[in-house]
């Protein structure tokens, strides 16, 4: 992704300030979703597992920042159990932006999507993914001749709340992202860069129809495993009913 963790939830000052501001926004705007890690009743999980509550998807807005960051932090704390150091450190991109700044920028540019569930007038964040157009491809990762000439969209920060693991929400969100990339960006491919040493995640993406490309040539880049998948609907699997209700 750099896309999914660390044993200790270390917060830098800038990230802490952003998250504290988000808390204030959530308190001021009760319509903002809570994270699934925040006192979500077990009944919500049960009803989703039984298919009795619908999952909604919408373009995330700046006031969703806290919920998106909470999903990321939960994944960050869980990942060491998978024997990977993914997301263990927050590094700056080529523009000098830390993770919280990158997330905020993606919200401001309407590139991030959030999956939510509503129960008893409270909304909870279930999953998130960011979909970038070709113009936003990371040249540090997609660095092979012709890479940036391809018609592709780029995914990052695909995260599903742990309480909803095992429901194929991530797989369905990838299918939805492929459809969105094809319809909105006329992309023939969707691409994602995955943490170099997270081999379980490599296997996961291969199982979702992604083909692994050569690693990026900068061996110091931590998320250098490159994957791509066709946005064609003909992937050899029978069509499934729509999982998400767009709102």
Can you tell me about this structure?
This protein has 247 residues and is an alpha/beta fold. The protein has a single domain (13-242), classed as 3-Layer(aba) Sandwich (Aminopeptidase). It has 6 helices and 9 strands, in the order H-E-H-E-H-H-E-E-E-H-E-H-E-E-E. It has helices spanning 13-28, 42-49, 65-78, 99-108, 169-185, 199-207; strands at residues 34-35, 55-59, 112-119, 122-132, 152-160, 189-194, 211-212, 225-230, 244-246. Strands 1, 2, 3, 4, 5, 6, 7, 8 and 9 form a 9-stranded mixed β-sheet that branches. Helix 1 (13-28) packs across helix 3. The longest helix has 17 residues, at 169-185. Mean pLDDT is 85; it is low at 1-30.
Defining key terms:
247 residues; alpha/beta; Aminopeptidase; 9-stranded mixed β-sheet; 9 strands; 21% strand; globular; disordered N terminus
Give the beta-strand count: 9
SSE ordering: HEHEHHEEEHEHEEE
- Form type: globular
Category by helix and strand content:
alpha/beta
Percent strand:
15-25%
Number of domains: 1
Give the C-level CATH assignment.
Alpha Beta
Looking at this structure, what is the CATH superfamily? Gcn5-related N-acetyltransferase (GNAT)
